[in-house]
Input
Amino acid sequence: MQAVLDTCESKMKKSVSALQQEYNLLRTGRATAALFDRIKVEYYGQETPLSQVASISVPEARLVVIQPWDSSLLGPIEKAILKSELSLNPNNDGKLLRINFPPLTEDRRKELARSAKNIAEQSRIAIRNIRREAIDEVKKMEKGGEISEDQQKDLEGRVQKLTDSYIGEINVLADEKEKEILEI
Output
């Protein structure tokens, strides 16, 4: 019985965690090192995450400084950033890369806010699917005689409470992200 709840809660936590990671990668006009998590750089014939070949710092709200540990990587890092979907233009001074984040236009802010809502909705759908799987498992247990009908109703109620809790958490994250995107 408890195993069903534990599995359900574990999957729901992963969904919320995935939402937070997606939100970290969503560009909001503010500089953040997390935006560069998916960028890979050609390093000795291997695709290597940028964070493993350079230090990434955010000295100002709209500036990221990337300093490679090996200066021969400046060109490949610059190319990787230009090829990424971030639409950023790094300035190479021969020692490090400076990336200025221009303020977002109103249309781009609205587009990003819609995108954030869509990402949140996908997470809500994932949570509801996890709930459905857990309730199906509980019904199988009741049909198989492992638990009584009262225990089934109790478990279904507990699964629903978990679902409501995690959907509430998603709603809070979505509201915060939308506010962050739309602020000037």
